[in-house]
Design goal:
The complex is a heterodimer of chains A (154) and B (269). Chain A has 154 residues and is of the alpha+beta class. Chain A has 4 helices and 8 strands; from the N terminus they run H-H-E-E-E-E-E-E-E-E-H-H. Chain A has a single domain, classed as Sandwich (Jelly Rolls). Chain A has helices spanning 2-11, 20-27, 110-119, 121-147, and strands at residues 30-35, 40-42, 50-56, 59-63, 71-76, 81-82, 96-99, 103-109. Chain A has a 4-stranded antiparallel sheet. In chain A, strands 2-7-4-5 form a 4-stranded antiparallel sheet, with no helix packed on it. In chain A, helix 1 packs across helix 2 (20-27) and helix 3 packs across helix 4 (121-147). The radius of gyration of chain A is 16 Å and the shape is globular. The termini of chain A are far apart. In chain B, strand 1 (4-15) and strand 2 form a beta hairpin. Chain B has helices at residues 71-77, 114-126, 149-156, 203-216, 248-251, 257-264, and strands spanning 4-15, 18-23, 37-42, 46-51, 62-67, 84-91, 104-110, 134-140, 162-167, 177-178, 195-200, 223-226, 242-243, 246-247, 254-256. Chain B is built from 6 helices and 15 strands. The chains are: A alpha+beta (154), B alpha/beta (269). The A-B interface holds A 58, 60-62, 69-75, 77-79, 100-101, 137, 140-141, 144-145, 147-154 and B 17, 69, 110-112, 139-141, 145, 166, 168-172, 174-180, 182-183, 186-187, 201-202, 204-205, 208.
């Protein structure tokens, strides 16, 4: 089973370039998960104890605004990471994540990975090298969204 | 320099504030290159540069898609079948469709940017076998703001074109992508070393789309963007559309990111 997860982890683009030892180390924190369309991967406020690397399908990241319709602010697809709140205290999700269609993903036990990052700083550095670009890309995308660039000028 | 009076054949409402106006061709047709524009004159109101958005192979149809945002564009968008307007053109340098022969072509449109790109897409599709992969990435503000939606849905059914659409925000009834159009670039399938990109949309979107393309390995010389500036004479005399050392009307509107990229980040321009 673990050997199967090692292969799946190795094939995911998020882990591209990791050496075999690190892959084995990380694979111990992972499992295969699936979500049917409409099912939630997680809800805002819940503990961020597992994040996901999408292998198939699409996930809508949603914000529920009191008195208004739920708004989707981003979708994640194959190769993407869903969930970054596990990185920083208080380790709770800040938005909902809902499967738009059938989603297959690698579920990563966040507490397990945090422990491994703490115990082996080189693994922690490898993870940061992968997560920081994701965070920067999302920050940039959010800036563009905030500019409302297609809105009516003036 | 003198506008020719032409009659509106029909109009079509595309979005809440966007209309496509079909104008009768002149006696010698209405030949143009993809990416070129005409100066359209609403009598008694004024003149505006509007991209041609029809099929270059169909010389009997002159199409312009117009967003009603100011006095002139509102007057042009309000025109009805049978009414007259003035036309000068076509002007400017367009998309280098021929230069892309044999290469993968990535077309990135933001909002109304799909209108100036549509003639290039028609040309690419007309000679599909002469190009590598063709990828069309479209961004819009919301699902209700997707321009030429029926045509996009039709193109998506083709097996030889990759079409992805994303919106900046959506409700739960939208099952497509959500996020800015630049986020689609990292996922698109093309060979960066042999890719020509055509990008059109708001300037800030073109700037960040070009940065993403360069991150994938596409050269600045292979990224073509279409500039928009306030044009008056349209033949490089008046200087209204000056952008650094170029006149957008004459040296553009389409130019490479290698040439214009640094200027896009300059506030003074």
């Amino acid at each position: 089973m673990i050997e199967g997860m090692e292969r799946i982890v190795r094939e995911h683009r998020f882990f591209a370039g990791l050496d075999e030892e690190t892959i084995r180390f990380i694979a111990g924190c992972t499992k295969n998960v699936r979500f049917d369309a409409g099912q939630y991967l997680f809800r805002a406020g819940e503990p961020a104890d597992e994040f996901y690397l999408i292998r198939h399908g699409r996930v809508a990241l949603e914000l529920a605004i009191p008195g208004k319709a739920v708004m989707t602010f981003q979708t994640a697809g194959e190769g993407d990471v869903v969930g970054v709140s596990w990185l920083v205290p208080p380790y709770r999700w800040l938005h909902d994540a809902r499967a738009v269609d059938l989603v297959r993903a690698i579920g990563v036990d966040a507490a397990c990975l945090r422990r491994k990052c703490d115990s082996d700083r080189s693994v922690g550095y490898e993870m940061m090298q992968r997560f920081v670009p994701v965070l920067v890309d999302r920050l940039q995308a959010t800036r563009l969204q905030m500019l409302d660039i297609y809105g009516t000028p003036g | 320099m003198v506008p020719v009076a032409r009659r509106v054949v029909r109009t079509r409402r595309e979005l809440s504030d966007v209309w496509t106006v079909e104008i009768e061709p002149g006696a010698d047709g209405c030949a143009f290159s993809p990416g070129q524009f005409n100066m359209l004159y609403a009598f008694g109101v004024g003149e505006a540069a509007i991209s041609i958005c029809g099929d270059p192979a169909k010389a009997d149809r002159l199409l312009h898609t117009i967003r009603s945002v100011g006095k002139v564009s509102a007057a042009l968008a309000r025109l009805k079948a049978g009414e007259m307007l003035g036309v000068r053109g076509p002007f400017g340098k367009g998309w280098p469709v021929e230069a892309a022969l044999g290469a993968d072509v990535v077309v990135i449109a933001g909002g109304l940017g799909l209108a100036p790109l549509r003639p290039a897409l028609y040309s690419l599709f007309a000679e599909r076998e002469r190009y590598g992969r063709i990828v069309l990435l479209c961004g819009a503000r919301s699902p209700d703001d997707i321009l030429f939606r029926a045509e996009l849905e039709h193109w998506r059914t083709r097996l030889d074109i990759g079409v992805e659409v994303t919106v900046d925000h959506a409700g739960r009834d939208w099952r497509g992508n959500v996020g800015v159009v630049t986020t689609l670039i990292s996922r698109a399938a093309f060979d960066p070393a042999h890719t020509v990109a055509f990008v059109c949309g708001p300037e800030v979107m073109m700037r960040f789309a070009a940065i993403e393309l360069q991150k994938r390995g596409v050269a600045g010389e292979a990224i073509h963007i279409s500039m928009e500036r306030n044009m008056k004479c349209a033949i490089g005399h008046c200087g209204h559309c000056q952008f650094g050392g170029d006149f957008v009307c004459k040296d553009g509107p389409v130019a490479t990111y290698a040439r214009l990229g640094r200027r896009l980040a300059m506030r003074e321009l």
